[in-house]
Each structure stands twice: as structure tokens, then as C-alpha cells.
Design brief:
With 216 residues, the chain is mainly alpha-helical. The chain is 73% helix and 4% strand. It is globular, with a radius of gyration of 19 Å.
């Protein structure tokens, strides 16, 4: 029972840090101190260390000789490589989805798209975006691809503000998702792959513009 409680506590710490990074409370290069986490969460040092170890293994946190444990940061080259890999894998997931998607999954994807049509709030758009992409991963019928994409998506939280924060991007994303869905529904492998890759490439261009703007 004690081990189970400890595991639950480490999960809570893990989720707390991930959400803090997503919300901008912890930014890239920020130092993460065990004592601060103890005070903020009221949890003990052991589960905190377990959660920190997992986050280090996932590349979300890094150990710096001078500063100690800190939130990872991605440079321009790393961001480009991340999006290149994501573009390739998203395209493959969409292509496989055309081969293995079920009628029930088609209905679920359709409902996600219909809900997205009426979304204007950024937080809701982000949540809907996650649902859509995770559903495409599931439809690929490849557990290895699904796990790789989940881990890859975790790296996106290090990039800061969502590309959906750009005013017109929510509507653009809806149209791009709709195109992917239609290709999957029709079983068009090539079109599904092309539309998925285009979708990620558009997000990359917005991200690149933002990074370069912040540097200038």
C-alpha cells in the first residue's frame, strides 16, 4: 500500500511539473529545486525525486553542473529536427489510419472535427487538437508509433506558447484537420499522408517565425 501511495505521489509531482511548464510557470532554463516542490505540493522528497528522475530521462529536465536541475531548452536546430520527425511520423500515422480505421473511430473523429468547428478559445482548441492527433495515432493500429508520438509530443511543451495562439491558426487547424479526416475516411493513403505532413509543416513555420522574432 505504501509503494502504491508513493507511486501516486510521484505521478502528482510529475503532472504538476508538466502543467507548470505548459502554463509558463516553469520556463526553459528555470532551475527546479526539490525544496520548492516540497513547499508547493506538500509532498515528501522521495516521490519528488522519483518524478524528477523520470522527467530527466524524458529530456524535459536536464542536470546542469552549475545550476543543478533545470527545465530543458530547445535551440533552433533542435526545434527543426523535432518538427521534421513529427512531420514524418504524423504523415505515417495518417497513412496507416486509412488502412485500419474502424467505423466507430470514424464517428469519433467526425465528432472531434464537428466540435472543433465551433471552438474559438485557445485552451479548448489545444485540448481538441490533442484529442484529434491521439485519435489518429490510435487509428494507425501501431502501438509502437503511438508511444513514440506520445513521447515526442511531450517535447512540444518545451516550446512555450501554442501555435494556436496565433489568431487565425485555430480556423486553419480546423480546415487542416478536416482535410486529414476526409482522406482517412475515404481510405486515401497518399492524400492523408500529404495533408498530415502539410499540417505539421504549417505549425513549424509559425513556430519558426516566433523563434526568429524573439531573437531579433
Amino acid at each position: 500500500m505504501q509503494k502504491s501511495n508513493q507511486k501516486n505521489s510521484s505521478d502528482k509531482i510529475y503532472d504538476y511539473i508538466i502543467e507548470s511548464i505548459k502554463q509558463g510557470k516553469f520556463k526553459p532554463k528555470d532551475r527546479i529545486k526539490e525544496q520548492d516542490l516540497i513547499q508547493e505540493t506538500g509532498l515528501s522528497r522521495t516521490p519528488i525525486r522519483e518524478a524528477l528522475g523520470i522527467l530527466v530521462n524524458e529530456g524535459i529536465l536536464v542536470q546542469d553542473g552549475k545550476k543543478g536541475l533545470m527545465v530543458s531548452g530547445l535551440d533552433l536546430i533542435s526545434i527543426t529536427k523535432l518538427y521534421e520527425m513529427r512531420e514524418f511520423l504524423e504523415g505515417e500515422a495518417a497513412r496507416l489510419a486509412t488502412l485500419f480505421v474502424s467505423k466507430v473511430e470514424i464517428e469519433i473523429l467526425h465528432n472531434i472535427i464537428e466540435e472543433q468547428k465551433h471552438i474559438s478559445d485557445i485552451a479548448e482548441a489545444r485540448a481538441n487538437n490533442v484529442l484529434f492527433h491521439e485519435m489518429i495515432y490510435r487509428c494507425s493500429n501501431n502501438n509502437y508509433l503511438f508511444k513514440i508520438m506520445q513521447n515526442l509530443d511531450k517535447s512540444l511543451i518545451l516550446l512555450g506558447e501554442s501555435t494556436l495562439a496565433k489568431p487565425e491558426r485555430i480556423q486553419e487547424t480546423y480546415m487542416e484537420h478536416a482535410n486529414i479526416f476526409e482522406a482517412v475516411r475515404k481510405g486515401d493513403e497518399k492524400k492523408a499522408q500529404e495533408m498530415a505532413r502539410f499540417h505539421i509543416h504549417q505549425a513549424y513555420k509559425i513556430r519558426l517565425e516566433r523563434v526568429l522574432k524573439n531573437k531579433s
